Amino acid sequence: MANTSVNFTCPSCGAPLPYALEQKQITCEYCGTSYSIEQLEALLGSEQKLEEHRTKAETSSWKTAEAGKEWEPKEANNLQSYTCSSCGAEIVCDQNTMATECCYCGNPTMLPGRFSGMLKPDYIIPFKKSKEEAIAALQKFYQGKRLLPNDFIKNNRVQAIQGLYVPFWLFDSAVTAGAAFRAERDSVVTTSDYIITTTSIFHCTRLGKMAFARIPVDGSKKMDDAYMESIEPFDYRELEPFQAAYLSGFLADKYDVKADQAVGRADQRVTSSASGCLASTLDSGYNRISSLQPCSVVKEAGEVRYAMVPVWILTTRYQDKPYTFMMNGQTGKIVGYLPIDKTKLVLYCAATFLVALVVFYILLATTIMA
Q: How far apart are CA 287 and CA 161, in angstroms?
């Protein structure tokens, strides 16, 4: 039988490795490594399987058609997209966003289409506090909070921080306010046997004129009113005539509470303030003052202005729970909710109880000795 040659490559050096079929072992002429026929056959089989796998890999693909779901028409109407003029990225935002920065290249981007169908702000308060100052203020906010978990203080990092211009309606009003109050004054007479308290009750009415300037009402449903009122006041003496350039580099919310929808909240704040002003005119010698009926307010004149105010929003995370803080971007006042270490809380309550108990026994012992 004629000798038949089969070409392999040496697994060690890659050189050609021809051998005759009747041979049971072959040695590489280049590196000197010897192989048995069984080893070479097994190598050939594994190479064939690997080639088949490569071919299959070239024809396989991801099932991209199954990724995601179709938007509901109502959801799609609340979203719009724009293309970043710097890097060309297409970014989606909600219908209330007027200005933002590209999340890919950081390019400040105005969204002119967002201004259609809405009023242009009359005024704006520019940011006075920087991002670095906001982060430093948050760290200072933690100080002195004895019930904070140690891990929260040690490992806490700001995960997200964004400067946001929040829409506000500013109400100016001249009003006439009236209210009725119950005032009580106590007089005390001490005898050898009794302590006699006599309470005199007075019915007091007040009617007066007053003026309110720039009563703020948040124009964004997304912003928590409790947070926004907590970081007040803003110094409205620093209002600047609105210019779109102020928005560059910051997010800005388009109002979704119209001026006529904000009237109710403005009335509440005017009524509360007017009632307080009228009550403050009563004699300071009263021990107790209470309202007999809600304060009535007649607005004689009033104007409404649309303004945007600066707010830093900072987000941290602890035990997979987000914690959001807001800082007045003009004054630096910061508010937010913090986690409580339950173990510290129990120890603190126990310590307080023990201190109170010791003080009680000291007072008791002093009384007995007296």
A: 48
- Sequence-ordered list of residues with C-beta below 8 angstroms from that of 74, at least 6 positions apart, any chain: none
Which secondary structure element, helix H or strand E, spans residue 297, and what is its range? strand 296-318
Nearest Cα neighbor of 141 from 344, 321, 334, 323 is 334
The separation between CA 241 and the C-alpha centre of its own chain, rounded to angstroms, equals 28
Measured distance CA(313)–CA(126) in Å, rounded: 16
DSSP letters spanning 354-366: HHHHHHHHHHHHH
> Quick check: 270 and 216 in contact, CB under 8 A?
no
- Report field, pTM of the whole predicted structure over 0.85: no
- pLDDT tens readout for residues 64-74: 233 334 545 66
Q: Per residue in 309-367, pLDDT tens?
A: 999 988 887 777 878 888 999 999 998 887 776 777 666 677 677 777 767 667 666 66
Beta bridge partners of 307: 123, 168
